[in-house]
Amino acid sequence: MLDRWSLKLIKPALGNTAKLLNKLDIKANHVTVTGFFIGMLSIPLLAFEHYNWALVALVLNRLADGLDGELARLQSATDTGAFLDIVLDFIFYSGIVFGFALANPDANALAASALIFSFMGTGASFLAFAIFAERRQLSSMTYPSKGFYYLNGITEGTETIAFFVLMCIWPMHFAIFAWIFAGLCAVTTVIRVRSGVFTLTEQERKA
């Protein structure tokens, strides 16, 4: 929901950094993979309750996620890059939740399971629609620079990261944050399924 505004705010800084990396001949996919492995360090850091360091890894991962897209546009975006970007993002998001479950299974495991379950709804509706949007050559007016059709909703990247940051700052309240965010993800899933069915039905009527 907030991505369209947050992306505009950080785009100038990311663009300038991407130009520097491009001059150094650093490839977009290298940034994607490096950022992913840095982000995955959050799992053991969370498990051992080093929440501040986990937050650092989280922020660095998200910076890399923004930089790889800007670099890709400078170097010619590829399907391989778009594929890596979305797959590694979903693994990273689930990994953060898993790390909190490891940190305190008694208090966090059930809420973590509910949140990962809700991620399946948002992720499946998001990716499934992208397949049919590509087949019907639909393009997103909200996010035209994305490598695939970006079906928006209440919980997008900005909201996800905001909740993860809150969880790292106040880990003792992880379960509360997780249940709230799982509920928002459920609403997003309903919105995306409804929007996807409506859009595809309209396309079928026109065919």
TrEMBL record:
Bilayer-crossing regions: 36-60, 81-103, 109-133, 161-182
GO MF terms held by the record: transferase activity
Keyword Transmembrane: yes
Classification via Pfam families: CDP-OH_P_transf
Domain of life: Bacteria
Keyword Transmembrane in record: yes
EC number, UniProt record: 2.7.8.-
Record-linked InterPro entries: CDP-OH_P_trans, CDP-OH_PTrfase_TM_dom, CDP_ALCOHOL_P_TRANSF_CS
UniProt-listed Gene3D superfamilies: 1.20.120.1760
Keywords: Membrane, Transferase, Transmembrane, Transmembrane helix
Group of enzyme by EC: transferase
Family classification: Belongs to the CDP-alcohol phosphatidyltransferase class-I family.
Name of the protein in question: CDP-alcohol phosphatidyltransferase family protein
